[in-house]
Every structure is written in C-alpha cells, then in structure tokens.
Specification:
By secondary structure, the protein is an alpha/beta fold. It has a domain at 3-94 and 171-233: P-loop containing nucleotide triphosphate hydrolases (Rossmann fold), CATH 3.40.50. It has six helices and ten strands; from the N terminus they run E-E-E-H-E-E-H-E-H-H-H-E-H-E-E-E.
C-alpha cells in the first residue's frame, strides 16, 4: 500500500510550550483513519500542521510528507497555496455568524474555485446540493444556493462546511476532517456520514484522517490514539456504535 501521508518525528512548540513531541505515523491509499485521544492533547494541532495553518508563534520540526508535494514544511508560498487548494480540509469551527448577506453559493464557489479554476453558478451549486444531500419531506432542500448561512442553525452551518469541501474536491488524494459532527442532530449526523462515505467510495484511493468523538462511522479502517507519550495504534478494531440506526452493507444510513 502506497503512503499518501507520512509524518516523521513531528514536534510542535507554541509560545515556548511543547504541544507535540516526536509524532510519527503514515496513512496509505484507501485508509480511513480515526485520530482519537483526550481533549487538549494536540489532535487538532496535528491537522493544522499538515496544512501549515495558524503558524504565528509556532515552531514545527520534523517532516510532513504528502504524496506529490514532498515535505510540505519546506514549500514556498506559491506551492503551499497550490497544495492547500487540492487537499480537502474541514476545520473544526464554522464562522458564518458575521457574514451578513453572504449566500451558500458564495461559500461553495470560494471553496471550489482554487481547485477548479472557476466560479459556480446558482444552478451548479443547487445541483451539487441535490447530488450530495437528500431533500427533506415535501421535497424541500435543507438549504439552497441563495440561502444565507448567517441565519443557519449550528447543524446547518456544519453541514455546509463539510459539503463545501467534500463536494468541490471529490478527487482529492487526502481528506482531513476535524470533528465533523459538531452541533448536529441525528438526521444531519447521518447526512454527514453519508457525505463522507460517498466521496470515499467514489475515490477509493483517497486517504482520510479524521478526528471525532462520536463513533458512528462504518467506514473507519484504522484507529490511532494520541497520548502525551505519542501515537499508539489502537489495540482493538474500530467498532461503529450505529446509535443513529444500522447502516446498509455499503456503509450508508437511510
């Protein structure tokens, strides 16, 4: 199995405080890896380091190698922006509350344009929504291209964040997701699981690294645990709790 992501001896220091020390692991083609561990141990710091985000006051040592890009810690500004545009990354927080009249179309187009090179029309965005998110009773969309995220519930905002990344980068080789189920009710949690499952099934060579405290995902292939001592492989296979109903044989919730 060819490695897509390889992290070697990663150490992160923020404002003279050691956050991570000597972290090493690999993720190969087709692996969907859950990164678990206690709150505050540095899981999100690993994900942000892979994208080289929030670098102010941060010192990163070691290597983070991504197939096709080499050690991303050595990339210059232009290559770093190209790399970021082609990696699918869903951050933990949704920041739509202050966006006023910004529409769903703007969010999805902004997410997809660096990768595709073009803006999406209202019709194209609505087609994407219909492709990825099932409609509610009465054949109504959960939201449409002209909806305003500033007025969304927390769950709707989270659904939009995941959709805007997954739907615009379905061919990405690496998908990184930080707590995809924040603020979600059980219907939207199942929608998110199905969204991720769909992109994985459509792109079987994609490597996925995900943080989640909710264990409803039937497609996880491996679990690694971050502790104060470093990375450990989980002793037992990941078990999907299926607390929102049983998925079908392909891992989709109805």
């Amino acid at each position: 199995m060819e490695s897509v992501l390889s992290i070697s001896n990663l150490s992160v220091q923020i404002k003279n405080q050691n956050i991570l020390q000597d972290i090493s692991f690999e993720i190969g083609e087709g692996e969907v890896v859950l990164l678990s561990g206690e709150n505050g141990v540095g899981k999100s710091t690993i994900l942000k380091s892979i994208l080289r985000l929030e670098n102010e006051g941060k010192i990163i040592n070691g290597e983070i190698r991504v197939r096709g890009y080499g050690n991303i810690l050595t990339l210059g500004t232009t290559d770093l922006q190209r790399y970021r545009s082609r990696i699918a990354y869903v951050q933990q927080r949704d920041d739509y509350a202050e966006m006023g009249n910004i529409q769903v179309k703007d969010i999805i187009s902004e997410s997809g344009q660096p990768n595709s090179g073009k803006a999406l029309s209202t019709t194209e965005v609505n087609d994407l929504i219909d492709q990825w998110i099932p409609r509610k009773h009465g054949n109504k969309r959960i939201f449409n291209a002209k909806s305003k995220p500033a007025k969304f519930s927390g769950g709707e905002q989270r659904l939009l964040s995941v959709l805007s990344v997954v739907a615009t980068r379905p061919k990405a080789e690496l998908l990184i997701i930080d707590e995809p189920l924040n603020n979600l009710d059980f219907i939207n949690a199942r929608n998110i699981s199905n969204l991720i499952n769909k992109v994985i099934r459509d792109n079987p060579k994609m490597a996925v690294l995900m943080i989640s405290h909710c264990r409803i995902f039937p497609f996880i292939t491996r679990e690694i645990i971050l502790t104060s001592e470093g990375i450990q492989e989980a002793r037992n296979p990941y078990i999907c709790h299926s607390c929102f109903g049983e998925p079908n044989g392909e891992g989709f919730y109805r």
